[in-house]
Design goal:
The complex is a heterodimer of chains A (444) and B (310). Chain A is α/β, with parallel strands linked by helices. Chain A has 19 helices and ten strands. In chain A, strands 1, 2, 3, 4, 5 and 10 form a six-stranded mixed sheet that branches. A four-stranded mixed sheet of chain A has the order 7-8-6-9, with helices on both faces. The longest helix of chain A is centred in the N-terminal third of the chain and has 33 residues. Chain B has two domains: 33 residues; 227 residues, MetI-like fold (Orthogonal Bundle), CATH 1.10.3720. In chain B, helix 4 runs parallel beside helix 8 and helix 4 runs antiparallel to helix 11. The longest helix of chain B has 34 residues. The chains are: A alpha/beta (444), B mainly alpha (310). Chains A and B meet through helix 3, helix 4, helix 12, helix 18 and helix 19 of A and helix 4 of B.
C-alpha cells in the first residue's frame, strides 16, 4: 500500500508529461501545415485615434485574396517610439522581429547602421518599371527614405507635414479676408486676434518635441538644420539662431501665445474651442479638425520667412512613417518577393487614396489623388490639397546618424532657449553643435 | 549489532538525495537568469563603451573602466548635462514626495481614525486616487494642468489670475509632477497609517488624558513613537516609488522642457534605444540602484539597531 501511495505522484507526473507531449506534437503538426503559406509579420504604430487595426486587417484580407499563399499578420505595436523600441529589443535579443514595419522616416540610419533593414532599391532595380514607381511619389516624401548616395531604403506610407490652420470667421471679423502668407502678416494678424481669453497664434513647441515645428522656421529663414549628408548638422548657423529667436518672441515680445510655446495635444483642442485663432499643426489632424469645428476652418501654407520675398521662403519639414523591409540575409527569394508585393500593395495609389481619406495623412503618390475616395474628398474639401501642394516647398525632416541622441540634444537646447533658461541662443546652440559634432565624428 | 542495524538510517536513493535541489532548482534558475545574471551584466556593461560609428553592429565593446561614470558627472558632456539635471530633480522629487506625501497620509489617517458621519465615504475618497491606473490619472492631470483649456487655470482665472503654464514653465513643471504624485500616493499611505493607528490600544490614551496630557502631547509622545515602524516602512516605500516614476512623465511632457522635470528612470528609458548610449544607461542604472539601496539599507539598519537596543 505504502509503496503504491509513493508511486502515485509519479504516475500522475507521467500522465501529465504524456498529455504535454501529445499537445506539443499537435502544435508542431499545426505549425508545419501552416508553413505552406508565407507569413509576413507586419508591425504598425498608430499616431492617430482612428481604428488602424481594423483598417490594416481590411487591407490584409484584400491582399490575401489577391495573393493566395501569402498570409499577412498585422501587429499593432503602440506609438512610433514603442514600435522602434519593440523591434530593436526583439532583434538585439536574437528574435525574428517583423518582416515589414511602419516606422518614422527618420529612423533610417539607426536601423541601417545595425544592419537590420535592406534597401528597397534592390527590389526597385529588379522591377520592369522601377523608375516610374519611384517617380510617382512626391519628391519631398522620398528625401528621408534615401541615403546620401541616392539609394531608396524605405517607401513613404503615412506621411504628414505641418500646415497653418486658421479660424476664417475670426479673421473675417477682424477684417482679414485671406490668411497670412509671410511672418510679418502672421504677427500682425495674430496680434489683432489676441484677447484676454484667446491666443492669436499657437505653435506647439512645448512638450518634448520642438524640433519638428522649429524646422519649419529654420527652413523659412533660409537654411534647414540638416542636409543630404547624415554626418552633418547645421544647428548654429545665423538662420537657425534667428529662427529660434523668432519662435521665442511669439511668446514674449510679440505676446501672441504662451511663453515657451504651446503643448502638442492642447493646440488643436484650443483651436476647436476658439481659444486660439491660428495654429501650426500636422496635416495628420486635418480630418479631426474639419469634423470638430463649429466655424469655417481655413488651411494654408506655413507663412514664409525672410528667406523669400518671392515666396521661396515657404517651408515645412515632412514627417510621419515609411515602410521598412527587414532581412538579416536569411530570408528566401520567395519570402522577399512576398514582402515586396505587400510593400507595393500598401504604397499603391488605391491603398494610399483610401488611407489618406480615412486618416488625413498625405497620400504619398500623385496617382492616389486621382483615385477614389480621395479624389472626391479633395474636391469637396480643398483643404486636403493644400498640404499636398505645400510639399513642393517642403524640406527633409531631421535625421542623421545617432538620430535619437542628437535629436535629444537639439530638443533640450531649443526648450531651454524657448523657456528663457538660456537667454543667449547663439551660445546655447554653439555648445549643442560642439556636442553634436563630437558624436558625428565617429561616422565621418 | 542488532541495535546498530536498527538505528542505521535507511539508504537514500540518488533521487531522494537530489530532491531538495530539484525542488529549489526552478526558483534558483529563475533568480539566476532574471536577477543575478542581469545584475552582473549591468555592472559589466557600465564599464564598457559600445562600438560606435559605421559597421559597429558586430564589433565588441571597448573597456573604459569608470569612463562612463566620469562622463555622467561631466556637465559639458551631452549625457552628463542631462544626467546631473535629472539626478538633482529626482532627489528633489523624492524629498518632496516623502516630506509632504507621508505627513499628509498620516494627517488624513488621524482625521479619519475618529468616528464621524460618512466615514467610509471620506476614507474611500482619499484612498481612491491610488486605485486609478497611473497613466490614466496622469492623463487627467495633463488636462487639469493644460495651459489654455485646463481646469487649474480656469479656477485661477475666476480669481483674476492670468493663469500659469504648469507643464510648459521650467520652474513649475517639476512641481506639477510632484503634486500629482502626492495626490496619488497620500491615500495609499493613509491605509498603512490607519492600520497602524488601530493597533494602538485605546486605554493608553485614556490613561494619558487622566495624567493630563493634551492632544498635542499624546500625539508627540504616544502616537508618533508607536507608529514608528509604520512610518519607517512608508518612508522607505515612498522613497523607492519616487525613484521608479515613469508613467506621469510619459503623460506630462516627457520630462521637459529641457529635462526640467525629468527623473532618473525615465532618462534611462529615453536612452535605451541607441546603441552608443548603452554604457551610460547601465552606469545610470547602477547609480539609481546604489542610491535606493543605500537609503533602504541605512533605514533598516537604523531601525534594526533601535529594535535590539530595546
Amino acid at each position: 500500500m505504502s509503496i503504491d501511495k509513493e508511486r502515485e505522484p509519479d504516475m500522475r507526473l507521467r500522465n501529465t508529461l504524456f498529455v504535454l507531449a501529445l499537445a506539443l506534437c499537435a502544435m508542431t503538426a499545426g505549425a508545419i501545415s501552416a508553413q505552406s503559406d508565407i507569413v509576413i509579420d507586419f508591425y504598425f504604430p498608430s499616431a492617430t485615434a482612428n481604428d488602424a487595426e481594423g483598417i490594416f486587417q481590411r487591407y490584409a484580407d484584400q491582399f490575401q485574396e489577391e495573393n493566395p499563399g501569402i498570409t499577412i499578420n498585422p501587429v499593432f505595436s503602440g506609438s512610433y517610439t514603442d514600435t522602434r523600441n519593440t523591434i530593436l529589443t526583439e532583434l538585439q535579443g536574437g528574435g525574428a522581429g517583423p518582416d515589414v514595419a511602419v516606422m518614422l522616416s527618420i529612423d533610417l540610419y539607426s536601423f541601417a547602421e545595425e544592419g537590420y533593414i535592406v534597401p528597397a532599391q534592390t527590389f526597385i532595380d529588379a522591377m520592369d518599371d522601377g523608375q516610374a514607381y519611384v517617380d510617382d511619389f512626391f519628391p519631398a516624401l522620398m528625401a528621408n527614405g534615401m541615403d546620401e548616395m541616392g539609394n531608396v531604403w524605405s517607401i513613404p506610407f503615412q506621411r504628414s507635414t505641418p500646415i497653418l490652420y486658421y479660424n476664417a470667421d475670426l479673421l473675417a471679423e477682424a477684417g482679414y479676408d485671406s490668411p497670412p502668407t509671410n511672418n510679418a502678416e502672421l504677427v500682425e494678424i495674430a496680434q489683432a486676434l489676441t484677447t484676454d481669453d484667446r491666443d492669436g497664434l499657437l505653435v506647439p513647441v512645448a512638450g518634448g518635441f520642438p524640433i519638428w515645428m522649429y524646422q519649419s522656421f529654420a527652413i523659412a529663414y533660409g537654411r534647414n538644420i540638416v542636409g543630404d549628408d547624415p554626418t552633418e548638422v547645421y544647428f548654429n548657423t545665423p538662420e537657425a539662431v534667428e529662427a529660434v529667436e523668432f519662435v521665442r518672441s511669439l511668446g514674449t515680445d510679440l505676446g501672441v501665445g504662451p511663453a515657451g510655446g504651446a503643448a502638442w495635444g492642447d493646440t488643436p483642442v484650443a483651436f476647436l474651442a476658439e481659444q486660439a485663432a491660428m495654429i501650426y499643426h500636422t496635416t495628420g489632424n486635418l480630418t479631426r479638425i474639419l469634423s470638430g469645428a463649429d466655424f469655417e476652418v481655413g488651411v494654408w501654407y506655413l507663412p514664409s520667412g525672410p528667406a523669400g520675398e518671392d515666396g521661396a521662403g515657404y517651408g515645412a519639414p515632412t514627417g510621419g512613417g515609411n515602410l521598412y523591409i527587414f532581412d538579416d540575409g536569411s530570408k528566401s527569394d520567395a519570402e522577399l518577393d512576398a514582402i515586396w508585393k505587400w510593400v507595393m500593395f500598401l504604397s499603391s495609389p488605391e491603398i494610399q487614396s483610401d488611407w489618406g481619406a480615412t486618416t488625413g495623412y498625405i497620400a504619398s503618390n500623385a496617382a492616389a489623388w486621382e483615385t477614389e475616395p480621395l479624389a472626391s474628398l479633395a474636391l469637396e474639401h480643398p483643404q486636403y490639397g493644400v498640404a499636398r501642394d505645400q510639399l513642393q516647398h517642403a524640406g527633409k525632416e531631421f535625421s542623421s546618424y545617432a538620430t535619437i541622441t542628437i535629436q535629444g540634444i537639439i530638443n533640450g537646447t531649443l526648450e531651454s532657449i524657448l523657456t528663457g533658461e538660456a537667454e543667449d541662443a547663439q551660445a546655447a546652440m554653439d555648445a549643442a553643435q560642439a556636442q553634436i559634432d563630437g558624436i558625428l565624428a565617429d561616422y565621418r | 549489532m542488532a541495535r546498530d542495524a536498527l538505528h542505521r538510517p535507511p539508504r537514500k536513493s540518488l533521487l531522494s538525495l537530489l530532491q531538495p535541489y530539484i525542488l529549489v532548482a526552478p526558483t534558483l534558475i529563475l533568480v539566476l537568469m532574471f536577477n543575478v545574471a542581469p545584475a552582473f551584466r549591468t555592472i559589466n556593461d557600465s564599464l564598457h563603451k559600445p562600438a560606435r560609428g559605421l559597421g559597429a553592429a558586430g564589433k565588441p565593446p571597448e573597456f573604459v573602466a569608470l569612463g562612463n561614470f566620469q562622463d555622467l558627472f561631466d556637465d559639458e558632456h551631452y549625457m552628463g548635462k542631462r544626467f546631473l539635471r535629472t539626478l538633482r530633480n529626482t532627489i528633489v522629487f523624492a524629498l518632496a514626495t516623502v516630506g509632504i506625501g507621508v505627513p499628509l497620509g498620516l494627517l488624513t489617517a488621524l482625521l479619519l481614525n475618529r468616528p464621524q458621519p460618512l466615514l467610509g465615504v471620506w476614507r474611500f475618497a482619499v484612498f481612491y486616487p491610488s486605485l486609478l491606473p497611473l497613466i490614466g490619472a496622469a492623463s487627467i492631470w495633463s488636462f487639469i494642468f493644460s495651459d489654455s483649456i485646463g481646469l487649474a487655470n480656469a479656477i485661477l482665472k475666476t480669481f483674476g489670475h492670468p493663469g500659469l503654464n504648469w507643464l510648459g514653465d521650467r520652474n513649475l513643471v517639476l512641481l506639477s509632477v510632484i503634486i500629482i504624485n502626492i495626490w496619488k500616493q497620500a491615500g495609499y499611505f493613509m491605509i498603512f497609517f490607519l492600520a497602524g493607528l488601530q493597533n494602538i490600544p485605546r486605554d493608553i490614551y485614556e490613561s494619558a488624558s487622566l495624567d493630563g496630557a493634551g492632544p498635542a502631547q499624546q500625539f508627540a509622545y504616544l502616537t508618533l513613537p508607536l507608529l514608528r515602524r509604520t512610518l519607517l516602512f512608508v518612508a522607505v516605500i515612498s522613497f523607492t516609488f519616487a525613484f521608479q516614476t515613469v508613467e506621469q512623465l510619459q503623460a506630462l511632457g516627457e520630462g521637459g522642457p529641457a529635462d526640467s522635470a525629468n527623473l532618473l528612470l525615465y532618462l534611462i528609458f529615453q536612452n535605451i534605444s541607441e546603441r552608443r548610449n548603452w554604457g551610460y544607461v547601465n552606469a545610470m542604472t547602477i547609480v539609481l540602484i546604489g542610491v535606493v539601496l543605500s537609503f533602504t539599507l541605512s533605514n533598516f539598519l537604523l531601525f534594526e539597531r533601535d529594535e535590539t537596543d530595546r
